[in-house]
## 1
Amino acid sequence: MNPEALANARQQRAGGAAALYLAAAYLVAMPYFLIVVNWQSLVGSAQKVAALVANQNSMYAMYLVTYVVFGIVLAALALALWKRLAGSPGIAAVGGVVGLIWACMLVASGLVFNYGAAAVVDLYDKSPAQAVSAWQAIEPVAQGLGSGQGEFLGGLWVLLVSLAALRTAGLPKALNWLGILIGTAGIASVIPVLRGAAYVFGLLQIVWFIWLGIVMFRTRASEQSQRQVGLVAATNASTSAPLEMLGSTGPETPTFTADPRVGARSVNDG
């Protein structure tokens, strides 16, 4: 078996495990933030600071799992998909870069939130008013890095991955169309009147991550070997076509034969 194919298959299975982790992180985060802490219903910085003080340890752990670790695992998945969809190099490359940018911003958002929350909780014992003022400055930074005003980067990444997969047949067609729907919803959520589309993005992305994880986790080395053969054949075909055109339309190249009585002479010259 081709060692490169084996390595690629391992990377794809690792990507599948990453996708399943991301789905699990969504499933853990949604009930925590919507039910346990009920963060969305809190009005004003004073209520949010009070919630941070009351739930300091669990909030820290949740942001670590669903932002910092989430971003690192997302980067691994983005790289695996970039490799898998190399048959569409332009779209796959742009999608890979967008995925890595999104991953870095999520990690930064989680770090800013946790560090800022710890500082605010420490300050709260001395001066609740100053703690509220500090949180008013910290929260917009964390939200901005974490796509708090719409899932543009996440939506664009899923959309590009799905388009590349449609062109290369690297993923099931139904999964790709679901990804196009999810990506469109994520991009649309940056429009203020369509902010609710972010919920569609989040809920459907759980299904997309689970489905994607199963597909990638089942990748075999033989499939990767066949995909590499197809990619090489497509690359050779795309590069040989211009050369064949040049050979068929270019000027005739004279050939020479050696004659000891005459010396080198051109056959074309007769």
## 2
Amino acid sequence: MLKQTGKAFPAASAMAAARARRGANIVAGLVMLALATAGAFGAAPVAANAAPTASAPAATGPTPLDKYLENLKTLRTTFLQTLADGQGREIDRATGTLIVARPGKFSWDIHPQAASTTAGAAGGAAITSAAGNGAAGGAASEPGNKSAGQLMVSDGRNLWFFDRDLEQVTVKPVDAALSATPAMLLSGTVDVRKNFTLTPAGQRDGLDWVLVEPHGTDADFRDALFGFANGDLKRMILEDKLGQTATVLFDHIERNGPVTAQETSFTPPKGTDVIGTPRK
């Protein structure tokens, strides 16, 4: 049962929140990486339209993604995430922070980015600039609404999802959650080659691309493109089963730096509803 807050939400806000939670399914499954921006944007994101095609044969040797994961122990990065509909129109935008401590621990904290009257016109230009240099530039550092959005944490035993908008926490043991998700891939929660097919997808926009396709039908995304430059993961482009595309641009990347245990642990805030039972 959802917690009754006594507040009436405007129809537009409710629709935006619902759309945000649908967009989250693309990136992390289980409604984990929700986008909760308010309002829609009219500009088509260039990154989604300019995704490189994967016509190369299946790889027999290691891909840039294999090499990246082989040397990855921890990761800390900010990001800008956009969501486009099936016609390429940007409909949501958010910023956040990803922290990874391999194996099996991560935190993905995402907040809606405030809409502005110029966002529709400037959105495409910002993505174009980021696509050109393979990084999120200053876009990812623009603050979102810290009191809204979603937080997903894997503490190595349980997968926690905190929806600040609903004041609701969902928890599942890690091995009971959907496994074929990019966040779990990066954190080392799952065996990459067992759960995904990796195919080199060539170079474009100064990035080396790898096509990632989940095995089976339980994943919430159809395929994903991982873009690398100078050994760093700079961009992810993910398409869901409904034709929506999420683009994640990474910035301020720190690999193999210190990560505290507190940063990949979670305690439900007082007053929130908790659905599920955590494994002790």
